[in-house]
Design goal:
The protein has eleven helices and no strands. The protein has about 210 residues and is mostly helical. It is about 75% helix and about 0% strand.
């Protein structure tokens, strides 16, 4: 980093911060493990509750000797099929977040060694967010509908931090990261040393 100008360092830091803020909510959702997510859905989803009630009623209709030997289905039994699907989704989300962390880390630490690779990783991570999560501009559309900044602020202040980050922060930071990565890629291509042309053959004047 000794040969870099301070504006380039700050630009890389700003792009890395924008990328991290973009993926903040998907990364925070990893704290909820697949088993916890499946149990929560099984306890609140009407379809899961009805299936559990159907299992209980089918067991209660069996004759007394058999029904005493069969255990009533628990919430974990109903959540088990969903847990397997959530485990695959959780592993996929973890892989994406690790890729984003790699892109931000390479940009901050090794951009002067890797050239345009760090910028390409940032562009790929920002594009991945747009492909998987999209950019929801609902918060800013609400400002257009309300046409009153105090009224808009009163509405969005009722949101939780995750919803506010997803609807207000991520739509801006993902484009900052994408445009910043493109600018860094152009800078890397501009400072790449050019190959000197081969020397012209000497003229034989004899």
């Amino acid at each position: 980093m000794r040969n870099e100008h301070p504006p380039a360092v700050w630009l890389r830091a700003a792009v890395a911060l924008a990328l991290v803020l973009t993926w903040l909510v998907p990364a925070a959702r990893l704290a909820e493990l697949p088993q916890q997510r499946a149990l929560a859905l099984a306890a609140t989803e009407p379809m899961c509750l009805s299936s559990r009630a159907a299992l209980v009623s089918s067991l209660s209709s069996i004759d007394g000797g058999v029904s005493r030997r069969l255990a009533r289905p628990t919430l974990a039994d109903v959540a088990a099929p969903m847990q397997r699907a959530f485990e695959r989704e959780w592993r996929t989300d973890l892989t994406r977040v690790l890729f984003v962390a790699l892109a931000a880390g390479v940009l901050l630490v090794g951009a002067h060694r890797t050239g345009g690779v760090a910028a390409l990783l940032v562009i790929a991570a920002a594009t991945l967010y747009l492909w998987v999560h999209e950019a929801h501009w609902d918060g800013y559309r609400l400002l257009w509908v309300a046409q009153s900044l105090p009224l808009w602020w009163h509405a969005v202040s009722q949101w939780g931090w995750a919803l506010a980050a997803e609807r207000l922060v991520a739509p801006v930071t993902v484009w900052l990261a994408l445009l910043g990565g493109g600018w860094l890629l152009l800078r890397a291509e501009g400072v790449r040393p050019r190959r000197a042309p081969p020397p012209a053959p000497a003229l034989d004047l004899s």
